[in-house]
Amino acid sequence: MFFSPQEDPHSIQVIKFYCGSTCLYFPLLTILILCTDLMYKTGRFSFLPYLGLIVLAEFMKSIFINNYIKEPEKLAGRNAPKLGGTGVRKWFSEKRLKDFSKILVLLGLVTIGYFIIAILFGAELFSKYEETFMLSSLLMLLTALPPCLYLGPNYALGAILGDEPSSLNPLSPIFQHVVRITLLGVWLGAFVIPLDWDRPWQEWPVPCCVGALMGYVAAHASALIQVAIPRCLTHGIASKLKI
Amino acid sequence: MQQIQDIVNGKKYQIVSYHSLLMLFRTCFTLFALCLFLFGFFPIKNVNVSFSTKEDIPSRLLNSSLDNNILYHRHIGKLVLVVIDAFRWDFVETPEYMPYVTELRRSKKALLLTARCHPPTATMPRIKAIMTGSIPNYVDVAFNLGSNKVLEDNLIHQSVENDLKVVFYGDELWLNLFPDKFIRKEGTTSFLVSDYTEVDANVTRRIGKELKKNDWDILILHYLGLDHIGHLAGPRSPLIPDKLREMDGVIKLLHESLQKWDLEHSQAFPSYLVVTGDHGMHDSGSHGGATLGEILASLLLIESTPHNISLSGKRPEVSQIDLGATLAVLLGLPIPKLSLGALIPHALHRLSDEQYLFALFYNAQLIANQFLNADSNGGSKDCFILYLKAQHVHELWLKNRTEDLKILAESLYFNATQGMSFSVVKNLVTFNMWAIVLSCGILIMVLFWTMLVLQSFSLRTACKNLSTITIFLLVGSILHAVSLSSSSFIEEEHQTWYFLWITFLLLASWTNRPIGNEFSSKFALVAVLLGHRFLRKLNQTGDKWASLPDISDWLEMPEHQICLTLVFLLGLVGVWTSLLGLKCVSNTVDKVLHFCALLCTLFYRNDVGDIFLPYLPFISSSGVKEVKAFWFLILLFFLRSVANIQQKWSMKRAVKILLSILVLVSTLLLQPSNVILISYLVLSSFTIQAYFKDTIKCSFGHVWLGTVVYFYQGNSNNLATINVATGYIGVEHQNLISASLLVLFHTLTFPILALLLLWLQFAKEPITPLRKADMLISLNVCFLLRLLPLTVYFIVITIQREHLFIWSVFAPKLLYETAHSLICLVMMACGCLLTFVDSKLKGGV
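ok -> structure tokens follow
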């Protein structure tokens, strides 16, 4: 479970900040959810405010990274597709509006995609729409929202699907990594659902949501560790395994 | 490494033949280990053929002598035992279903108990348990199809020995179990499960005549209708209340006649009516397993005069084996030698205190003898000491008759009996640990050997760059094998497979591009994905969710017959297209033969009444003629093909012939709603082949596919889901061998077909040594995939042999796993032989 980040200091700085900040606040959120009754509400609409919390945190991070972590001169010339790069002066422009609506449509499509996949995996077809929808939205927020914010709508889908090893943004390898580990978490979580233990945490989609949250934390933590420890070590292993 | 180079470069057929022989050897070795394990796990019990006699009734209690003629004699006149198959414990609870029984209970003439049975909950072992009072061997369930004579001591034998006349009407199983014991008898066959009225009407018709005669002492009736309804439509079917009302009518008829009889003849002893279920009913309607619904049956004790027992709230629960001993005491017969049951106190309230304690003493003595036989140092165990204490208290009571002493003796006897009986039952199961450990050792060895062989074959192609999907396939297989160590995962094994299968498909579509026609392959993949979602709802299976309504239930409702007909026709069209698509039928004569065989299937289902086609003529009501014609057509095709293949050997042709014959046979055997699965199997096989050209992934995919479709079909790890009715399709006489072969094939159809579809791919012309190596690799992969869960499971079950669920969850799974492995190993042995023969023939050229 490794990824190959770009090696220049700016990218490393961005990755460190991005993963580090997630590792600070997200485990707290996860622990809060796990230790209270909130866990059993993950499949209810009443959980939506907490999803809003995730969105807010993600927005703040993106504004901070896009505006305050300075890019070196050589990259500034490149036409990097990002949202906040153009500065405060053109806060409202036609391009922004277009991008914004594109992002909304894309996020909607991703949610529908997760919904369909959940049903293919065996979620109820004629009932429990609320639960399935909440899982899909959670997954959308965790896996699709960050790429949209940093890469823009045109490149986000490629980053999620892992089609192109995009070098446009230092964070795009992270996004692929997060998608994989988060989905792995959901996948492992689903194993306990059909068993006959009759526990409240077996209810659809509680274990999947918990798996997603834990996978998300694990993905960021592992990424942070990978960029933080000496480069030569991880690089050797990563290139050997090519996972 | 060197070998594959040789195969590629030097075209050395010898190496292929050498390896296929080695593989054959491994297969046979595994088969041996399999049999060894079964032998160790299900030891064959030596039949104890000694019988109880009047002399066994004790005449001494410690130092005081007893007159057993006064203390032990007959207490009831005529005994009528009504066995209602699958009479679940809760069927009596609704007053509207059985009004007369409810009335009897209110007037204290009937006593309702719950009888707890031991798994397996099949009819034959249960009847044996009631009559002998012992617990039949677990393997007995295998012989449920062809029942054989009861050799042990039993209640019927004791009755006949002591000049009581027994009359029997009902399930003909009894006639096989107890031949030549009844003075009058008539068996009804449990052949046609779809018939639930005639079987019972045939029994009821006889009662009237019997009640006028005076020459019998015991009348046994066995009603099958309720069980048939359960198999057809489940315990919540609207047919169940009707059937229960009918049974209530029978009980009313019997009870009223017996009451009249007692008044007219004023016999010394009143008549006695016992109504019991042999086992319960699973929530899905079947039985065989160990869920509460299956192991709890109703037991009604009905008398002519009201009893004086006060019942405190809850329904008393007794063990099913208690019934044999209790009836023996009531009839004044020697208790069967191997009986382990305690006496049911509620049935013995007419005995005097002296007689009652004596009966308890006699029964305890019988069990104590067995206890000492089974456990040589059992004399110092607590339960045996309780038994000795009970005797002392009993003797004390004989001298000083106080109520306290009586109650003390009674409870001591009960506790002692229960403890000793429990201990004997536990000791009945003795594993042969040598055989078990040896077979596990062999399997582990063969597993590693196969891995080494596979590694040497495929090191170059696969292991260097492990793709995501290869890792997933390996991890998935290992996860599944490990999951077998938990009973919950065994019960819901299909969910694991569905999950792995859909992940496999999605990963395939994500990471791989199809080879060849891209559009049609992608379309096929989407169809397979959507088909999966639909088909996993076709038959709900497993344990926790099995009772949920599913598509096949909906289709089988009488009012949806037209839909079922359409689905069946669609399935047949699918089979025909698949056969053409696989190019299994090439010339016109073969096409005609196949088409006629499919028509026979259609006619058969129409005649049996599963489907309804308006313009199709009826040929025979049981459909026997069509099935005969079907087998004749298959035989004709087989002979033609053999004649063809003798002229020019071709492995591809051989596999195709086998495949098309098996597809046709499974079309005949499968439930009408399941026929559609065949086309799903073929479509999925096409898709896998379009996405993966790599031998190893292809083999993995096919083995998984076979297992997934096996679960779509409705199979589970509960013995209740085996459809025994398929063994009797188009047969007029019961034949154990053909029936069990058909049932085995019906259960494992899809794993078999999937393997054949896989091999068909490797048998394609022109055959080069490289293709042959592919075939060998594929054989090895399939072998490994069967061996891995088998080995893990054998180790798990060896460790878990004291587990609470060993007989209810682990043992049935063991039977399934071994049956599956047996079939696959035999097929692999054939595959090895084919490869060997082929390489010899080619090498010779």
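The CA atoms of residues 23 and 221 of chain A lie 6 Å apart.
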